UniProtKB/TrEMBL annotation, chain B:
Keyword annotations from UniProtKB, A to Z: Cell cycle, Cell division, Periplasm, Signal
Keyword Cell inner membrane: no
Domain TolB N-terminal: 22-123
Xref: Gene3D superfamilies: TolB, C-terminal domain, TolB, N-terminal domain
Protein purpose: Part of the Tol-Pal system, which plays a role in outer membrane invagination during cell division and is important for maintaining outer membrane integrity.
Gene name tied to this protein: tolB
Keyword Protein transport: no
Annotated organism of origin: Neptunomonas phycophila
Protein family according to the UniProt entry: Belongs to the TolB family.
Name used for this protein in its record: Tol-Pal system protein TolB
Subunit structure, as described in the record: The Tol-Pal system is composed of five core proteins: the inner membrane proteins TolA, TolQ and TolR, the periplasmic protein TolB and the outer membrane protein Pal. They form a network linking the inner and outer membranes and the peptidoglycan layer.
GO CC annotation, single: periplasmic space
Length: 389, 428
């Protein structure tokens, strides 16, 4: 809630009062009433020091809380302002009421006076005049006295205010003291003293609290530092442990890797050795096979040459190729002329030369795998040399 | 999985890696092919000819075959069921011929013959030939031709004929000359012409229907052409001087001959249809013994234009002359094989006159005979045998030698001296 929101009601209240005053003005000029002493109304505010002390204590407590203090202070300020306004409004209302009552009474008195006037008008007119003069004099003296009192009071109030002004106190306390200046100026000193003492106490308390807080903070800081140190230590220990474990694991892995490498190297060496051995054996076998094939080729050529009857039509440069398929026993499975010489007699002689061998007996002595792979099918090229033509 | 694929791949490689062994045979035995011609079984017939023997002799004489001696045969099978191939293989035969002769209708005989490959144990050829008792030799020669052709790929020349001249001295200074024709084996000779004057240089026409020869019957040499079927003959040339050595062109339309009408012997070409004579040699030396190349484009002849008799070739369209023989002092009477590659001739060396053959491809000359007075070579139409005249026991005989010189034989003795043989072409 903001102060701005009270501006309109205050303006309206003032307007109402102004209107009422304006309405009453003609009446005042029409009938001149007897001066009547009206009781003087002193506007004052009742202050309970106990509650004030409590409130101050509360405020101090609140002030300890950094974040809440300002809020509560603002709230209290607001509430004080509000209370003050309410009191002002109440006073205004009471004044109006009193005024209205006075008016009513004046009217009634007027009526009565009119009647008395009618009855005693003439009789007491002189007396009244004297009395009126007397009252007027009295009223003037009274007013003078009142004015003096009022001046004294204002002076006292100003002095009180001047005392308050230099104090380093809160606005609320200042308002309270101002109110006290207004109501009981003499008690202000003691109130100031009490406030200052209280303030000193509070400052002391605050200092103590701050110290305690500081100590607590220090302690907390120390604890935190200790904790941090412990945590650090723990962390370091953990890290050391982890590092140790990592080192251990790394070493284990390294060892494992080296072992694996060693095993692999040994395996590779063994394999290489085995491979070399196999290669050597393979080469030896190949060499042996090559020799076997060469021997068998010579044997085949010899066997066929002995039986090949070169016909009269054979000529140097003729060539016929026979494909001879053998059984593993060396017997002839088939003989086929796959490339003819162009001379029937020549081709027949070639076929017959192979058939006449009947059986290549050495074939049965050869390794069956080698035989099957290299010697089962033989291409025999018949190409006569040394003929007359 | 990967290993499986590798294994499969290696197996495939192993399969594909299988290679044939290749060997080359260059040497062998230069000998005739052994064959057994088993005596034919003759049921209910008394044959005057031994067909199997004729076949066997024919094949043996060709130089290509070596027939088995009958006395060495373990059996005489006449049907396939009776043949034990192993026996014939063991006895060294590559082939065998069996046959049966049986009477046929109209007094004829039927000869069923079968040729087997002993090594493969397969039948190569079989046929039934019909003939009569008078031409059993023809049946036999036909069988020989078939066997020869089936086994060598060359057409057999056993059914061909030869002509030759015989001279029989009746009294000193008195001779009887006969132009005779016989089977290729010399059998069944018959006289074509008989004269008291010399008969020379018989020559076959290409179709085998006519003979040309030189006869002195009219006191001076004249060239005659005689139809064999009818015996009719025609004197085609009789100039003064030498008229000799007729040779038929391959197409039978022309005769090459030697005339000395212009002073010395020169080679002329006579067109039979028109009688036009064309002199093709012009040299003061002797040009004689012409023979036609198989393609009819050139003529070979003997000439001593270089001082000694040598054989020359004259290209007729271009008249280009080429000397063919250089080896030896004497080379004459050249004759070409049907393929035009081999030139046979009479070649003289230190030991006399021999039959020689020159490979025109390599110009290699080989002397085929060892006798010293060989003359008049003539070649079988299939080029397998050269027949020639020679002296044996002071008497002229016919002899034969295979082209490679491996087989030599002497023909049966005729009546008197035999000379001037001429081998017929294939007869229809």
């Amino acid at each position: 809630m903001r102060i701005r929101s009270y501006i309109l009601p205050v303006v309206l209240a003032l307007l109402v009062h102004i209107c009422v005053v304006l309405l009453l003005v003609p009446h005042w000029f029409q009938q001149k009433q007897d001066p009547r002493q009206t009781p003087r109304h002193i506007q004052a505010t009742m202050i309970d020091l106990k509650s004030l002390a409590t409130e101050v204590a509360n405020q101090q407590q609140i002030a300890e809380a950094k974040e809440e203090a300002a809020q509560k202070q603002a709230e209290q300020t607001r509430q004080a302002a509000e209370l003050e306004k309410q009191e002002q409004a109440e006073q205004a209302r009471q004044a109006q009421e009193a005024e209205r009552k006075q008016q009513a009474e004046a009217q009634a008195q007027k009526k009565k006076l009119e009647e008395q006037k009618q009855q005693e008008a003439q009789k007491k007119l002189e007396e009244l005049k004297k009395l009126e003069e007397k009252n007027l004099e009295k009223q003037r003296s009274e007013e003078k006295r009142l004015k003096e009192v009022e001046d004294a009071r204002i002076k006292e109030f100003d002095e009180c205010i001047a005392k308050i002004k230099g104090l380093d106190i809160t606005a609320e306390q200042k308002a309270t003291l101002e109110a006290l200046c207004n109501s009981k100026p003499k008690e202000v000193e003691s109130a100031i003293k009490a406030i200052l003492e209280k303030k000193a106490d509070e400052a002391e308390k605050k200092k103590l609290a701050e110290e305690a807080k500081k100590k607590a903070a220090e302690k907390q800081k120390q604890e935190a530092a200790q904790k941090a140190a412990e945590a650090e230590k723990l962390k370091a220990a953990e890290a050391a442990k982890k590092k140790a474990e990592a080192d251990k694991q790394r070493k284990a892995e390294e060892a494992k890797r080296k072992e694996a490498e060693r095993v692999a190297a040994e395996k590779a060496a063994a394999e290489a050795k085995q491979k070399a051995e196999l290669e050597k054996r393979r080469q030896a076998a190949l060499e042996k096979n090559k020799q076997t094939v060469a021997d068998f080729s010579s044997y085949v050529v010899s066997e066929i040459s002995r039986r090949w009857i070169r016909p009269a039509t054979a000529r140097n440069g003729m060539q016929a190729t026979a494909l001879v398929v053998l059984f593993p026993s060396g017997e002839i499975d088939s003989v086929e002329i796959i490339q003819s010489s162009g001379d029937l007699g020549f081709d027949r002689s070639a076929e017959n030369a192979v058939y006449k061998v009947g059986r290549f007996s050495r074939a049965s002595e050869i390794d069956p795998v080698l035989f099957d792979r290299n010697l089962r099918r033989i291409k025999v090229i018949f190409r006569p040399e040394g003929l007359r033509y | 999985m990967k290993k499986w694929f590798i294994s499969a791949f290696l197996m495939m490689m192993a399969v594909t890696a299988r290679a044939d062994l290749v060997v080359e045979v260059t040497q062998g035995v230069d000998a005739p092919t052994p064959i057994a011609v088993v005596p034919f079984q003759a049921t209910g017939l008394a044959l005057n000819e031994d067909i199997a023997q004729i076949v066997s002799d024919d094949l043996g004489r060709s130089g290509f075959f070596k027939p088995m001696n009958r006395s060495n045969m373990l059996g005489t099978p006449s049907t396939e069921e009776q043949v034990f191939f192993r026996d014939w293989r063991v006895s060294g035969n590559d082939y065998m011929v069996i046959g049966r002769v049986a009477p046929a209708a109209n007094g004829q005989v039927q000869a069923s013959v079968e040729l087997y490959d002993v090594l493969k144990e397969r039948k190569v050829w079989s046929e039934t030939v019909t003939g009569n008792s008078n031409n059993l030799r023809d049946v036999a020669h036909y069988i020989s031709d078939q066997v020869f052709e089936k086994l060598t790929g060359l057409k057999g020349a056993f059914s061909t004929r030869i002509v030759y001249v015989t001279a029989k001295m009746n009294t000193p200074g008195n001779f009887t000359y006969k132009l005779q024709m016989a089977d290729s084996d010399g059998a069944r000779p018959r006289t074509i012409l008989q004269s008291k004057e010399p008969i020379l240089s018989p020559a076959w026409s290409q179709d085998g229907s006519k003979l040309a020869y030189v006869s002195f019957e009219s006191s001076r040499p004249a060239i005659y052409v005689q139809e064999l079927a009818t015996g009719q003959r025609q004197k085609v040339q009789t100039f003064r001087g030498l008229n000799g050595s007729p040779a038929w062109s391959p197409d039978g339309s022309r005769l090459a001959l030697v005339l000395s009408k212009d002073g010395n012997p020169e080679v002329y070409i006579l067109t039979l249809a028109t009688g036009q004579l064309d002199r093709v040699t012009h040299h003061y030396g002797i040009d004689t013994e012409p023979t036609w190349a198989p393609d009819g484009q050139s003529i070979l002849f003997t000439s001593d234009r270089a001082g000694l008799p040598q054989i020359y070739s004259l290209n007729l369209p271009t008249r280009e002359l080429k000397r063919l023989t250089y080896e030896g002092k004497y080379n004459s009477r050249g004759r070409l094989t049907q393929d035009g590659r081999f030139l046979t001739m009479v070649h003289q060396d230190g030991s006399g006159f021999h039959i020689a053959v020159q490979d025109l491809k390599t110009n290699r000359l080989d002397i085929l005979t060892s006798s010293s007075l060989d003359e008049s070579p003539t070649i079988a139409p299939n080029g397998s045998i050269i027949m020639y005249a020679t002296k044996k026991g002071g008497k002229g005989v016919l002899a034969g030698v295979s082209l490679d010189g491996r087989v030599r034989f002497t023909m049966p003795n005729g009546d008197g001296d035999v000379r001037e043989p001429a081998w017929s072409p294939y007869l229809q």
